Structure formats: structure tokens, C-alpha cells
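Run folding on both entries below.
>entry_1
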Amino acid sequence: MNISIVTVGKLKEKYLKQGINEFLKRLGPYAKVEIIEVSDEKAPEELSSTEMEQVKNKEGERILTKINPDAHVIALAIEGKMRTSEELAANLDQLATYGKSKVAFVIGGSLGLSDDVIKRANETLSFSKMTFPHQMMRLILVEQVYRAFRINRGEPYHK
């Protein structure tokens, strides 16, 4: 399986990079995983709702250029469907079984994802009703993808 994680912004925090790199290394035997960063749109702290939409749309355009046309797209969104780790594992297994070998997870910027990205997505996934920093979501996502492969192969993984 080829998995891409398309994400907004550059990761600066060393501790997050180390965690992500550890899980990418562990994922090596299971899947080819690449992280694709698109630049975030510079904007002041205080934005009108129109300006927020403009920022999300510009970031969304960048995201869409990085998604493979045949990829099954899973957008991370707070209003998405919540799944257990086992359900995510079953979903990835089902995608592989039915020939969807290219999966793209999409993590938006601090304002979320544009409507166009949500429309392109085959499904939306929520990790919680809480808000997490988008940089931290990369680490959480790669850990859950690793966990999903371990679950699917019946290999032990801490609970």
C-alpha cells in the first residue's frame, strides 16, 4: 500500500519530527509512506470569516495539486466519522482488498480544510471532538496507521 499524508505547514518541533520518523521507520515493512508538506498561507491572527475562507481555499488548492488522481482520500476533519483503531485497521484492509493501493490522508492547516478538499475526499475521519495542533496530528496519524497494520497482521501492539 502507498500512503501519502498531505499536510499544511512545515514541521519545526524536533520532538514531533523524532516521533514521526520512528513510526515511519516502523511502517517500512508494511507500506510506503510519504509525508507531503504544502506551505501554509500567511495570515494575521484576527481574520474575518471571508478572509478565513480565502486562506483555506488557497491552502486547499495547494493540497489538491499533491493528491494522486487515483488515490482514496481520507480527510481529517473534526466533523468527520470517529473510528476505533480496529475500525481504521479494517477500513485500510478493505481498501487494500478492493484494489485501492493509494491512500492519501489530508491534514489541513490551523483553520481546517477547504470545501473543495472535503468534496474531493472519499471520507472524512475525526480523531476526537477536541482540537489538536495540526503538527501533532501528523504524529498521532502515523502512529494509528502503524497500529492499523499491526492489528491487520495479528501482531501484538500495546493497548
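>entry_2
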Amino acid sequence: MSDNSRLERAQRFLAVLRHCQVLGLSVHAADEKGLTLRLPYSEAIVGNPETGGIHGGAITTLMDTTCGISTVCVLPQFEICPTLDLRIDYMHPAEPNKDVYGFAECYRVTPNVIFTRGIAYQDDPEQPIAHVVGTFMRLGKTVAGETR
């Protein structure tokens, strides 16, 4: 599969998630290594009005979505893969007035479960805001509204 195909699949997947549209999430990059989404800074995601710090829920949504959509980078066909488990370890707060990027990769694919890991960062991926690991259940490819 080409990187353009991965990018298009990721964009189509993201476009149907209403809460992600509200947050303004967009696909930054998609290739065989994984997926990067962008969460733009806005007043709507501020958790602490005194500091302008981003609410942890917005970062959690970014990372759950990034891990979930990263499955399109490794699967030959689109499959519905709901979250089974997600763990996020926050390293430090996100800085105000800066976008946040989420990167995730699928490091193991089994017939029933996909294992992912990633990071949330702002300027430098070497200084992550958070680390994430997630597992996603494979329900099978969907054809004309049916799951096989």
C-alpha cells in the first residue's frame, strides 16, 4: 500500500468522527511507520483558564484516535477496530498556545487484537507530553454493511 493510500484512508476515517471534527483534529502524516494527527490549540480545549493549559481529555481523545486510526497503516483492508484498552502516562503538561501532535504505530497485529504505542508531543518528539499504549479488537473487514 502506498503512503498516499494510507493518508487517504486515515483522512476518511477521521472525517466520520464527529468529536474529532469538533476538536479540529487533522491527519499530519501517515506511512508504513505509523500515523501522526494534529490537535490545534484553541480556547475550547483549555482545562485551566489561569494557565491556558490543555485539558487532559483532549490529549486522551487525540491519542485514542491516533492509535485507533493507525490500524489503517498496517491492515490491507479497512476494519472496524474498537478500543479494548488504552493507557496514557502523562510526562508533563502541554504548553499553552501550541498545537499537540500524536504519533502512533502498530507494533503487533494478531488475528484478533492489534497492539499500538505512541507519544503526544508539541515541538520535539524527543520531549513527549505523554506515552500511550493501546489494544484494539479486530472485528473483521466490513463489506456493504456486513462484518465478515
